[in-house]
Amino acid sequence: MEVEYREGILHINFEIQEEDIENGALEILKVIRPDWEKNYITLKLLTDGITNKLVGCKPEGAEDEETVLVRIYGRKTDLIIDRKAEKRNMILLNKAGIAPNLYASFTNGLTYRFLPGITLNNKSVRDPVISKLVARHMAVFHKIKPSEDNRDTFIWDKITKFIELVPDVFSDSDKNERYIKNVPHKSIIEQEVYKMRQIVENLGSPIVFCHNDLLLGNVIYNEQENKVTFIDYEYAAPNYQSFDIANHFAEFVGLDKFDYSLYPDKKFQTSWIRTYLTELEGREPTDEQIETIYVQVTKTVLLTHIFWGIWSLVQAEHSTIDFDYMGYAAVRFNEYFTKKDKFLNLEASS
């Protein structure tokens, strides 16, 4: 198996086949953990992700801290994700002390250190202690300085690319019928993107280094250490501060069983924003500052619905993961049009 270094990272020229993930993971372990006995390695397929497939690997009887994660990219996700940028993000964030060690890349994936803890759910994300940890950690994340050649917001170019990848006719006839029936045509989506760009660009939200994909499964809570960590940096890039916060709040409603009554109310959001700003700026924010960000976040959440709605249409055409992407797209666009007028008419209270 050929091994080399690319951009300072060990690269294994090997491709894991989707139909033989466990044996593929064992091949990767031969390189990064050559002292592990093949017959005494436990493998666990982790199924939370809707973009990639993930395998946890450790010697039998070993502590969880020894677990190595092997992540296999979803089929054709290179169309929507810059994998080189993802590796650069992991290196940047690891140096800042907020990302796990990256052990190696391989032809269609990455392997890195497991972070002990549990992913958040609809209940734990609202816990007063945990929610404050999330707010503070996002502030720390937003303080990261990206490279000089990577300071512009990624969102508009990424949306444009996504739209280009949405097929005029889906190859699966059932999906195409559902698309026609339940999802706005992409020409309409393009019009909405244009409108939202005018609005979001004029909100005055600062551009910071964002995670951009803070669904609950990407937030790890370690109770023993009383801290949270964000994982999966595929979309991490400079973006509007309000997008990262809005995107996190939008995930409170669930991923496959949606309950929009769980979207956080103003009281929760303003308390969360207060904690975030205190960590970000090192001082107690004014009520006016909090209100300004609340309004920015409320309007920008509409952009998150568009972004992930388009993303889901691309995945509906290409992904082999068992997830109802077309249904997910329909829900996100429905929520966008349902809340659009109400959210855009919101003004800061005096």
Features:
single chain, 350 residues, alpha+beta, 7-stranded mixed β-sheet, 3-stranded antiparallel β-sheet, 10 helices, 12 strands, 15% strand
Mean pLDDT: 92
* Large-scale geometry: globular
Structural class: alpha+beta
Major sheet summary line: 7 strands, mixed
Number of strands: 12
Number of discrete helical segments: 10
User: What proportion of the residues form beta strands (DSSP E)?
Assistant: 15-25%
Strand order of the largest sheet: 1-2-6-7-5-4-3
Strand/helix succession:
EEHEEEHEEEHHHHEEEEHHHH
Measured distance between first and last alpha carbons: 65 Å
Helix coverage percent of residues?
40-55%
Weakly predicted, low-confidence segments:
none
Q: What Rg do the Cα atoms give? A: 21 Å
Please summarize what this structure is.
The protein is of the alpha+beta class. It has helices at residues 21-32, 83-95, 128-142, 155-165, 173-182, 186-201, 241-250, 266-281, 287-318, 325-344, and strands at 3-6, 9-12, 41-46, 53-59, 68-72, 102-106, 109-113, 118-119, 207-210, 219-222, 227-230, 237-240.
Give an overview of the whole structure.
The strands form three sheets. The chain has a seven-stranded mixed β-sheet, with helices on both faces. The protein has a three-stranded antiparallel β-sheet with strand order 8-10-11, with helices on one face. The chain is 44% helix and 15% strand. It is α+β, with helices and mostly antiparallel strands and 350 residues long. It has helices at residues 21-32, 83-95, 128-142, 155-165, 173-182, 186-201, 241-250, 266-281, 287-318, 325-344, and strands at 3-6, 9-12, 41-46, 53-59, 68-72, 102-106, 109-113, 118-119, 207-210, 219-222, 227-230, 237-240. Helix 6 runs antiparallel to helix 9. The chain contains ten helices and twelve strands. Strand 6 and strand 7 form a beta hairpin. The longest helix is centred in the last third of the chain and has 32 residues, at 287-318.
